[in-house]
Structure formats: C-alpha cells, structure tokens
Amino acid sequence: MLSIKNLHASVEGKEILKGINLEVKAGEVHAIMGPNGSGKSTLASVLAGREEYEVTDGSVKFLGKDILELSPEDRAREGLFLAFQYPVEIPGVSTVNFIKTALNEKRKYHGEEPLDAVSFMKLMKEKMNLVEIDKSLLTRSINEGFSGGEKKKNEIFQMAMLEPKLTILDETDSGLDIDALRIVASGVNKLRDENRAIIVITHYQRLLDYLQPDFVHVLLNGKIVKNGTKELALELEEKGYDFIKEEQNVTSAI
Amino acid sequence: MDQIKLQYFGEKFNELQSSNPDAFLSRLRKEGFSNFSDKGLPTHKNEEWKYSGASVSNLFHKEYKLTEDKNQLPVMKDDIDEMRLPGFENANELVFVNGKFVVELSAIRSSSEQIVIMPLEEAENGDYKEIVKEHLGKSNLFINDGIHALNTSFIYGGVFIYVNKKQEVTNPVYLYHILDAGDNHILSQPRSLVFIDERSKLQIVESYKTIGSMDSFTNEVFEIVVNKDAILEYYKIQNDKTTASQVATTHVRQIGKSFAHTLVISLNGGTIRNNTNIIMEAAGNEAHMYGLYLLKGKSHVDNHTLVDNKMPNCFSNELYKGVIDGSATGVFSGKIFVRPDAQKTNAYQSNNNILLSDNASVNSKPQLEIYADDVKCSHGCTVGRLDEEALFYLRARGISKEHAQAMLLQAFASNIVEQIKIEPLREYAEELITERLSEVNTEE
After folding, report:
1. How confident is the model at residue B294 (pLDDT cuts 50, 70, 90)?
2. Residue B278 CB: number of other CB atoms within 10 A?
3. How large is the average pLDDT for residues B55-65?
4. Which of A56, B323, B324, B338 could form a disulfide with B360 if both were Cys (CB 3.0 to 4.6 A apart)?
5. What residues of chain A have any CB closer than 8 angstroms to a CB in chain B?
6. What pLDDT, on the 0 to 100 scale, is given for residue B441?
7. How many CB contacts within 8 angstroms connect chain A with chain B?
C-alpha cells in the first residue's frame, strides 16, 4: 500500500529525513517511535504534503501512485489521512459543514454523487457513536474551544467519516488522559480492517498497548535504525532510547 | 482647484440659487460654495485625505455633468427592477436618479401616520420647516473639507424622512441610487435628512447602480437624527461598476439616549470613501458600527469613522474587516473623541485585514483623543495573510485549495454579515459574498 524508498527531506535547508525506507501493507499497523527531534512528525508532514518541507531525494508510492506529485487535497482524496498532532482551531467554519464538504469533494474525485442530507446525517450519527463524540461539539466551529481530548476525538471522528485507506496518527496520544486515550484507541481499533493500514507515530508505549502494532520502527536522526515487532516497543519502554543509540555508535564504530 | 472647474460649478451654483430662492437652503448652499471655493477638492496634503486625496482629485480631472432637472431623466422601469433588493415587497422603495429623489418612481408602503417621506424642499417649505432648519447641515461642523462643501453648495432634490413618535416602522426604507452615465460622466450629489422621533425605529438601506459606460461620481451626504429611545439601523451596500466612485458621508446624531447600528459593505467600485460619523449628543447612547470590504482589481476603499462622545455613559463598538486582493487598497481610519464631559465612556474599535496578493495594501489608523479621565477605550488592528495552518488542515481532509480559501474567508466575513438584521437582505449579502469569495485565487 505504502512504499517509501530512500526518502530525504529538509526544511529551510536543514535535512531532517536522511533516507527513510518503509513498506506498509494493507491490514498492517506500524508504529514509528523515536526521541524528540528524530524526524517522526516531519515524516508525517511530508507524507501529508505540507508545503514547507522539501523532498530532496527518494520516492513515496501510495497504492501505486507517486504521491509526492500530488497536492495535499489529492492525497487525502486518494485515501491518506493525517490525524494532526495539533488540530487547528478554525473559528467561523462549522465542523459539520467542513466534514460534509471534505466527504463530498472526495466522492466527486472518485466520480461519485455527493451524499444527500439524510444519508450524511445517518452516516454521521453512526460514526459519532463509534468514537463517542458529543453532537454538540460538531455543531461548533472546527475545534474552537475544544479540550485537547476533544480535538483528538474529533480527528478520529473525521477519520471514521472519511474512511481512509492509510491513516497516520501523529502523536495522537499526546496530551490525553487515560479515559480519552482509551476512547480514541478503541475508535481507531473499530476502524481497522484488512483493507486499511495505520501508521502510529508516538513516544510512548501506552497507545500501543491498545493498538497492538504488527511492526515497530525506531527513527533516530532522520533514519529508521531498528525494526521489530511489538516486543521492541516494550523494550524501548523499559530501557529508553539510549540502548539503541549505543548500538548505533557501536555499528558506526565498526 | 482648477479655474475652469470652479467656473463650471460657479455657474451651476448661480443657476440653482436663482431658480430656488428658498431662504434657508440658499444660505446653506451659499456657505457651502464659499467654503468649496476656498478649499477646493481635498488632496493628500490634508491629513484626513492622506490616502485617498490623490485618487479623488484625479477623478475630478475629467468633466462631470451635474444634472439639475430631474424631470428629463430617461430612466426606465427596467433599470429600477434590476436593482431592487430582496425584501422590496415590504420596503419603502425610494428611487434617486443622479442624486435627485424621484417621487414618481418611488413606492411608499408605510402609512403616513408612521412615516413621512417627501422632497426636502417641500419639507422645508411646509410642516417640517423647523426640523429641517434645526437639523440639516450639522455635518458641516464635523467635516469641513471641500468635497463636503461641494455637496452643500448643491443641496437640492434630496429626500426628507420623518418617523413619527412611537412608530416601529416595519417596512424598511430602501434607497436606490441610479446613476445615468450613458452620455456624460455624471456627478450626483444627494443630500438627505432623516429624523427618527422618540421611541421609534427605522431601518434604512442604500445601494447604487451606474448605467452606461461613462463614469459616475457620487458625492453624498446623508444626515440622520435619532431622538430619545429611538432605534436606527443603517445599511449600505456598494457593489457598483469600477467606473463608479463615491464619497459618501453618513452622519448620525443621537440627540436623545438611543441606539444606532450601521453596516457598510463594499464589494465593487472605483474609488470609494465612506465617512461614517456617530455623534453622541446625549448620555447613555449606544452605537454599533460594522464594515466589510472585499476588494480586488484596482479598487480603493477608504472607511473613515468618527465616534464623538460629548456626553457621559455612551457605549460604542466598531468592527471593520477587509479582504484585499489584486492591487486594491483598503484604508481604515477610526477616530474616537471623548470630550471632557463624556465620563464613563466605553468605546471599542477593531480593524482586521487579510491581504491576498503582494500588490494589495491596507492602511489602518486608529485615532483616540481622550479628554475625560474615567473611560474605557480600546483599539486593535491586524493585517495578515490567510492562516496557512488552517488552510493546510482543510486541504489535508480533501478540500481543494480554492474552496478551502473561500471557506476561511467566508468565516472571516461571517460575523459582519450576520449583523444584517433584515433577513432577505442578509441572505442576499451572504450570496454576494459567497460568490465573490469563491472567485478569489491567491497568487502563489
């Protein structure tokens, strides 16, 4: 589904990603872990198409298409979804109107008719239950005055509505209390199936306890330096990132 | 001031004076013309005209025709139909052609117990003589530049509106200004007076339409007096051709504790200068002033506002917002006076601008002059680009860049538009703005 090869990217002339390789297949959940500044969020931003990042080398194929050539909106319409680390507050734009517009632009892209009001409301109700989000939040402006937990829930709600093929959760667990984390994680789990894949970017084990990733990758200084299964995440939780850094030093010394 | 122009206006002035010898109006006009002869047209050297003086005086390099005979106007019913605003079925529709109120083309739907609408001269010669004498021309004390004086020099043919006591007029007054620029560049100078008496309410809407390929220039002065416990709602929609320019003054005096609500929307036009003045002549007045300007091409829109607090305990709130594209220019200058007697004044002002292109510009200038010590006044101004983070967020959900921009700009404009309290008019304005903002295409 997603094939990243030798991806290099920089921002304001500074190289952040220094040759990322990653293969994600349908049905899989991948966790990308790493200390602050290792390039995790940059990877998410580059995949979603944030314009301030410049890709200097490498390729990214998503469902066979070179997505680096696509605008952010076309990537989303192709089925890529980024759950923002810091969802933006947009006063004056209602959440419902926003999601309806997004959904219908995606449908149009795929040659489908826009959803009528009744079907849309029905779909919304169904997905609202799925992620346990309160209806009153959706009648408000996008994320305006939402708590941290509400913002993250809103991200998962949008994911549920748009039914992406590939979801990137960019530190969705940050700033969540235990209850909110459980709700968000269970929302994500309900959306898992063999046709969809998820990349979870995180510092911590706690979200992975719920999501049970198939693969764990450690990102360090712009490169994936270690690949493993969920046991690797547990090891990291126990030992911190230092042991990997030491391994790296040893490797580079050799 | 160029001599040929002065001579032309002088001749026209003399003609008007000799054919309309009414003592009070003649005297006002005479003062006006003397002031105009002294000052001439404003230039950028006048501080109040720093940003718009040059374009206004440039516009006067061409020859405008002043029309004085309102009976020879070839305006068709179709022209009026085209500019009727939604909700017209319930409105008092007043038609002005080249600045003159044309009774025959107008439709008055309110009863005469509620509201009296008649030509200004008729009011001055009849039962409303005292009101006209007492209240017409007061704006001259606040705006003493040459272009205002030029309007005063030619006071003739405007409308007089009087709302009786205890009348909540449910039919708004729609003023349609038609400018017939088919054969000549046209100078239109409407001068009208409204008096809303105690415990009454009136909604006023003004709009403009230039017909023909020549230029029009509207030099308007609209004086509105709001008496005790009365309510004024005033709306102005400027959506005319790029060949249509204006200096339009709305001078509101709240002479008793009352409520005023003004809103000016500028969407299209050439050079536009709006003076919106609120004079707080009684204690406890409340005023809300809103403005929205969506500019493109070479439009130039200058909003000058004045809130003059003369008496204690008055409240005013101003919110002006602009979206400026192309090589258009926006100007906002907001003056708040707090006179020594105006203790406990609350006066707030805010001006927010979004620039969409590198050639767009805005000049925003708050001016607070406070001579009382127990007051609350604040002002704020922002100039910026569209929020890139918000734009990316919308795009990351599959919304096209153009659509995302339009959504954000509409959101920006929405808290102004929702202040239009005449529902069909608000819906109409929303449509105009939606249409307008979906055309916006930001330069990369």
Report:
1. very high
2. 28
3. 85
4. B324
5. 48-51, 71-73, 75-77, 82, 84, 87-88, 90-93, 98-99, 101-103, 105-106, 109, 141-142, 158, 162
6. 56
7. 74
Q: How many structural domains compose chain B?
A: 1
Distance separating alpha carbons of residues A117 and A123, to the nearest angstrom: 10
Residue B204 lies in a domain: yes
B126 in a domain, yes or no? yes
The answer to whether position B297 is within a domain reads no
Distance, CA of A18 to CA of A4 (rounded, Å): 12
Q: How many CB atoms lie within 10 A of CB B162?
A: 22
CB-nearest partner of A105 from B390, B392, B398: B398
B351 belongs to a structural domain? no
Structure tokens at B121: 């001269």
Residue contact A92–B392, C-beta within 8 A: no
> Scanning every residue of chain A, which has its alpha carbon at the shortest distance from the alpha carbon of B411?
A92
Q: Which ranges of B40-87 would DSSP assign to H, the alpha helix?
A: 53-59, 77-83
Q: Regarding predicted confidence, which is higher, B173 or A186? A: B173
CA B250 to chain centre: 5
pTM: 0.89
Mind telling me how many Å the CA of A32 is from chain B's nearest CA?
21
| Interface ipTM > 0.90 | yes
Instruction: Give me the pLDDT at residue B442, please.
Output: 47
Select from B262, B205, B264, B272 the least CA-distant residue to B240.
Answer: B272
B315-324 and B259-268 beta bridge pairing: unpaired
User: Given an 8 Å threshold on Cβ–Cβ distance, is A71 in contact with B395?
Assistant: yes
- Dihedral angle sign, alpha carbons of residues A127, A132, A137, A139: positive
User: Which chain A positions have a beta carbon within 8 Å of B354's beta carbon?
Assistant: none
DSSP codes, chain A: -EEEEEEEEEETTEEEEEEEEEEE-TT-EEEEE--TTSSHHHHHHHHHT-TTEEEEEEEEEETTEEGGGS-HHHHHHHTEEEE-SSPPPEEEEEHHHHHHHHHHHHHHHTTPPPPPHHHHHHHHHHHHHHHT--HHHHTSEETTT--HHHHHHHHHHHHHHH--SEEEEESTTTT--HHHHHHHHHHHHHT--TT-EEEEEES-SHHHHHH--SEEEEEETTEEEEEE-HHHHHHHHHH-SHHHHHHHHHHHH-
Amino acid type, B416: I
Q: Supply the pLDDT for residue B69.
A: 57
pLDDT of B71 higher than 80: no
Q: Which domain holds residue B262?
A: 3-282
